[in-house]
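Two proteins were folded this term; both appear here.
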Amino acid sequence: MTAASETSTALHGAWRLARLDPRGMAFFDRSAAGFWHSYRAAVILYPVFLILLLLPSAGGEAPAPDADWFRIILVETIGYVIGWTGFPLLMLPLTRFLDCEARWLDYIVAYNWSQVLQGSVLLASSLLIASNLLPDPLAGGIAVAASVAVLLYGWFIARVALGISPTAAIVVVLVDQVFAIFISRIVQALH
């Protein structure tokens, strides 16, 4: 299978999971090679990540035009790599604790590919909000809806890929969010 066809198949699986279809898992290569190939999602998503850096943050402010952009991009890119590599490592002891370590690889592969769809949703909502075409309450509602959709999607993937209870899937999503906030705070402090 070529890289392009494997990527297309995996993104189709991610789309099926987004439609709450657990059969989406069948579209992922859940081997060791498939695990490494799932990091193509990080490469696909990197331009989206860079675009999001230019848009106003949740606080409503875009980075200053006179900011040291080389430093910001460098620090943010390091944080991006740490996020992509650190979360799977963090999940190893958590899956042991939840008694689903045998399905860790399945989860990480699905999680990685799902990031492309999640990033697309967040980019679309951020661009819409940044356009100032909508009244603030509606723009805020769209931001909240996009965030909730991403969280529910992550919950469904954890539930299906790890074969865990709804409550355990909430724990996985909370760990993911806390880790992301932790990395983000460190990166922001280094700007």
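Next, the second protein.
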Amino acid sequence: MHTLLFILISGIFQPADTGLNVVFTHIKEDRGQIYVAVYDRAESYMSPEKARAVRIVPVRQKGSLTCAFPELGPGTYAVSCFHDVNGNGTMDTNFLGIPSEPYGASNNARPKFRAPNWQETRFEWKKEAATISIKLEKW
């Protein structure tokens, strides 16, 4: 039982030889967790309950962190994420609705006055394994 748990946990945090690996960079706080969702259709984009894969990754260090999705294969995807620094389970915003915690998306899409859309964040993956990098920043 312990071995199975170790294998499952290590698959989440270590880059895999297959699947999708997402490297989060620019982590400024060594606490909280990163909520990440991978989407495979425009219709489900930004609806976490319809995501192809979801992870909640504990943050224990500043700098960068890798999250593996070994269950995913080549295809068209988009990734969105946010760093829940205070651990309340939601992306905090100010009174105007602007995020007050770091967030990011694939292709490092960062339009100024709206959330990135599917066209800006989607990417094609055609090999056995892929690694993308997402820079986490505040608005």
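The first strand starts at residue 19 and ends at 27. The chain has a mean pLDDT of 90. These notes refer to the second protein only.
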